[in-house]
């Protein structure tokens, strides 16, 4: 089938030279290798399915990460087709750790081509014609969808796979993109889990394949039916675990004790979909999954329990499992007053709407427990333990408890005493 080039209207306006401030060009091994004769377009792999990956929704960045496997693979694909090229893949995450673009979470490629250079502009147009072409079965932007390309920006225009019917639209962002073609990927595209790489258009199965299929922690495909619930959340069960997807989050799995706890407390309805696969804790023996609305941590000694909300945030500030230890209870409502708590190996974190979340541990926690926890005269903690001459002090709604390190005793002072 003869390909038609897109209209060149507007594709040669302006000239920008150099990289914008704050951008780091990451030259991945081999990206500046000896030039090779360019082919007309990237070569598609054999064995692609007849159907094409679904049109995505926009997927905002949710974490800070280095260039992902699919991002690196797309850069290599461009090099294999067009030879010596400069490709930027990395941009530092902001100091606050909140990602602001797909570059922040490793899901973007910048191909440094100048719109004002006729040869480079023609190269960009050749690639984009191929990427966004309708295939012989009538699938719009078939290659873009198979590679998991979410949107493209080039020479003051943007093409969005999630708004494919609109075609090329004016781009009004601060950078006109006249010095590079920007390609942002979906989570599955960045993970190298789309049909171009896995041979399946089902993202749930694609993730299973990427993990190792039958040899992965999920085990064999037992023929479980793929189910989709409200909001587009989908799941598929394998012998030892389950894979979840949603339109705006990565495809991830849960298995073992974490999956059992996840399902026991209400699954997606309680914690949302998983945002990570099961990961090992970095120092102590254990594992965890992060979910949309909390986390589940597991260790051989404690079992698997969820931590969420402000309690999770405070636990994280104290060093996760390396601070207070692993959770030994789930997120639990206080029995009388309005609040929640989670007990950990080395203490507890209590929360109420008026006091926030604070840690209580050691002899201070023991003394507070003897006085009725939050239901006693002291109420909820209003701060964390603070050093005082000779020991530690913890403030509560109704007073304070002080630990005398020399005598190894505690004393309580009630408000108004």
UniProtKB/TrEMBL annotation:
| UniProt entry keywords in alphabetical sequence | Signal
**Signal peptide segment:** 1-40
Is the Signal keyword given for this protein?
A: yes
Top-level taxon? Bacteria
Q: Residue limits of the ARB-07466-like C-terminal domain?
A: 68-181
Q: What is this protein called?
A: LGFP repeat-containing protein
The root-end lineage is: Bacteria, Bacillati, Actinomycetota, Actinomycetes, Kineosporiales
């Amino acid at each position: 089938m003869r390909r038609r080039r897109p209209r060149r209207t507007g594709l040669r306006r302006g000239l920008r030279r150099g990289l914008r401030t704050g951008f780091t060009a990451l030259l991945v091994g081999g990206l500046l290798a000896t030039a090779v004769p360019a082919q007309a377009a990237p070569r598609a792999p054999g064995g692609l399915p007849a159907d094409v990956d679904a049109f995505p929704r926009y997927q905002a960045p949710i974490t800070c990460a280095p260039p992902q496997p699919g991002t690196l693979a797309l850069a290599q694909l461009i090099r294999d087709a067009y030879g010596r090229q400069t490709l930027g893949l990395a941009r530092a995450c902001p100091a606050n750790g909140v990602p602001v673009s797909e570059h922040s979470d490793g899901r973007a490629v910048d191909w440094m081509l100048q719109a004002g250079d006729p040869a480079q502009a023609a190269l960009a147009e050749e690639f984009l014609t191929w990427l966004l072409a309708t295939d012989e079965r009538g699938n719009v932007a078939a290659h873009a969808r198979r590679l998991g390309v979410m949107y493209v920006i080039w020479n003051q225009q943007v093409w969005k796979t999630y708004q494919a019917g609109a075609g090329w639209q004016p781009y009004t962002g601060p950078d006109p993109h006249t010095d590079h073609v920007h390609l942002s990927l979906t989570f599955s595209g960045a993970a190298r889990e789309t049909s171009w790489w896995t041979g399946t258009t089902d993202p749930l199965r694609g993730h299973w394949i990427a993990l190792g299929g039958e040899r992965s922690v999920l085990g064999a495909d037992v023929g479980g039916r793929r189910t989709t619930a409200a909001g587009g959340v989908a799941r598929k069960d394998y012998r030892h675990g389950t894979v979840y997807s949603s339109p705006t989050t990565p495809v991830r799995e849960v298995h073992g004790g974490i999956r059992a706890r996840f399902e026991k407390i209400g699954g997606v309805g309680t914690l949302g979909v998983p945002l990570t696969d099961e990961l090992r804790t970095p120092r102590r023996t254990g594992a965890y999954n992060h979910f949309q609305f909390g986390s589940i941590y597991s260790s051989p000694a404690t079992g698997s329990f969820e931590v969420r909300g402000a309690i999770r945030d405070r636990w994280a500030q104290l060093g996760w499992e390396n601070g207070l230890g692993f959770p030994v209870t789930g997120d639990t409502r206080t029995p009388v007053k309005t609040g929640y708590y989670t007990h950990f190996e080395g203490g507890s974190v209590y929360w109420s709407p008026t006091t926030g979340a604070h840690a209580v541990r050691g002899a201070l926690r023991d003394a507070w427990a003897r006085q009725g926890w939050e239901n006693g005269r002291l109420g909820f903690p209003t701060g964390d333990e603070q050093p005082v001459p000779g020991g530690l002090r913890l403030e509560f709604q109704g007073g304070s408890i002080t630990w005398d390190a020399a005598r190894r005793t505690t004393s309580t002072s009630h408000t108004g005493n």
